[in-house]
Specification:
This protein is an alpha+beta fold. 32% of the residues lie in helices and 23% in strands. The protein has a domain of 154 residues. A six-stranded mixed β-sheet has the order 1-2-8-7-6-5. Strands 3-4 form a two-stranded antiparallel ribbon.
């Protein structure tokens, strides 16, 4: 997947993965590609430091158990369904290496390290091997690792709402078409939800100036039409409608009848 993404020219700077994907070959491939990574490892994975770094040696679990309380920082791995996801974190730099030796696009000094995450509820630890430009802050590595939660949440939503795992295909092409269609639908729905959740523009107050009644020269507000006619006006209108000698009023033309 990573090789295809690189070959397609997809822009990305980091890779995060669970321990199920393993390390070793994928680490070297990412270093040659000039990509940073935060890859999960097992508690029994061995680590050691060299080239001027503080002495670190042993399995990931042994190293975590030997850390001083001051080595841990309580930081958020990003927003979750119930707010910020806080853990205790420790980061140990193991070596500064020249990226040029891997023959990739990256240049300068990069740091290999060990990132440890400890749960606040039960103290369970998770371990990650890291590769990043020298001087990268622990917050950057935590943000990369924290993206895995959002990815897992997206997969769960796609399975429950769109049937991502509801297929029994017998070929790679069938599986790929099904997954591609589901993910396209997921992206469309996510985009619609994002736009629907945008805050409406602030309301603009329009101040209406009331004109003083004495200066109003138009029709009366009470009648909603012309001012009431006087008695003489009414008489003249009635005379005009009856004709000159009291005859019945002339019928309107047929085209004017309703």
């Amino acid at each position: 997947m990573i090789e295809r993404a690189i070959a397609a020219g997809m822009p990305f700077a980091w890779v995060a993965a669970d321990s199920v994907y393993g390390v070793g070959e994928i680490e070297m491939a990412l270093r040659r590609a000039g990509k940073g990574y935060v890859l999960g490892v097992n508690a029994t994975q061995a680590f050691n430091s060299w080239i001027g770094k503080p002495t670190v040696a042993g399995t990931a679990e042994e190293i975590a158990n030997g850390l001083e309380p001051a080595a841990w920082e309580r930081l958020s791995a990003g927003e979750g369904s119930k707010g910020p996801r806080f853990f205790d974190w420790a980061y140990l730099e193991l070596a500064d290496l020249d990226a040029d030796q891997y023959g990739g696009s990256a240049t300068g000094i990069w740091t290999r390290g060990l990132l440890i995450r400890r749960s606040l509820s039960d103290g369970e630890c998770a371990y990650f091997t890291t590769w990043c430009p020298a001087g990268s802050a622990i917050e950057t590595l935590i943000a990369v690792e924290g993206q895995r939660w959002a990815i897992e949440d997206a997969f769960e939503t796609a399975k429950n709402e769109l049937g991502l795992d509801h297929n029994e295909t017998r070929s790679w092409h069938g599986w790929h078409r099904h997954v591609s269609l589901v993910m396209l639908a997921f992206v469309m729905l996510a985009t619609i939800r994002y736009q629907a959740n945008q805050q409406p523009p602030p309301k603009t107050l329009i101040r209406l100036t009331r004109t003083h009644q004495t200066s109003f020269t138009g029709p009366s507000r009470r009648s909603g039409a012309l001012p009431p006619a006087s008695h003489s006006d009414a008489s003249s209108q009635r005379t005009s409608s009856l004709g000159h000698s009291g005859d019945a009023p002339t019928k309107p033309p047929r085209s004017a009848r309703i």
